[in-house]
């Protein structure tokens, strides 16, 4: 919900901030001719350490550019931070921006167009997975560089399946199979759940429902361009959520970030969790004997969602903008991309990176990683549309109301459609 409010504030900021204001304060060029750029990286722990190593390598290869990683906030709070920064005129050169927030951030005149940058010979733009390209392209222009790439699949606890006498699922299973399996895995007396779902109503809650909506033929917007394109499909998709809640087979995480849900899985008290490759390092550290399987479907055809996040570049003058473009271009090349993906828990941005021996070895060492990578072939992304945060908020409220037993799928979708359609009609 905060993202929706931030998007509205950002729209206002885009019309009031002065282009190049940050450059007037500091052009980033030192007396020795070295350019310093500010990176709001949004990372913590393992990913932050991996990025720090990459930055050190970049600076050794580009001695006239220094990357300052000191500012910013964690990724979940980045939109609000960027909104305030653009309004004040003191913004970074690069920020880690969620793909679902990019359309609103890119409305600011301070956002640098990277179409020419990704078209360079060194950036494997045409070799990127389609979802990575689509996530950063708005109205035919590339408005950011892909930062990380992931996909959703189902991770299963082998021991709990064995204890329950249930065979592990295989590719091609259905959502009915999923809900039935979750029911069989559940043992309330032992504090064991079949699966989990974030229950805050935020984007973490919402993006898990999109594969179901797409599989049923729904889309973000209808053909008229004035209403959502998933009103009819929404009730059936929410039926899966209702069945999980009815069977009491779902752990509903009451806090943002899904940390409690993942802790339940890591502690051996959840049979299945819908997640991405970023969770595999923690699962392996916890020594969970696991199995990864593609998402179920209604149609029998594979479908998942990819959540590309971005490195968005801002204009603080020519020298700093050029240095920032150089950095994001370097970071996206297969050699660096493979290191970043392997160390930070994401997937290769391009087929060229996937084909590198380093990634092949890493994929063989990490069970299930190949399932996530294979899923990119049929992955879709959330739309880069300015009204997405408001539509997502309405959809999140619908999911939560069904999870908590406060509404039926049909009634929840009626409320969602009314609110989301109104958001789509607001001029932007």
Automatic annotation (TrEMBL):
<protein>
    <submittedName>
        <fullName>ABC transporter substrate-binding protein</fullName>
    </submittedName>
</protein>
<dbReference type="Pfam" id="PF01547">
    <property type="entry name" value="SBP_bac_1"/>
</dbReference>
<dbReference type="InterPro" id="IPR050490">
    <property type="entry name" value="Bact_solute-bd_prot1"/>
</dbReference>
<dbReference type="InterPro" id="IPR006059">
    <property type="entry name" value="SBP"/>
</dbReference>
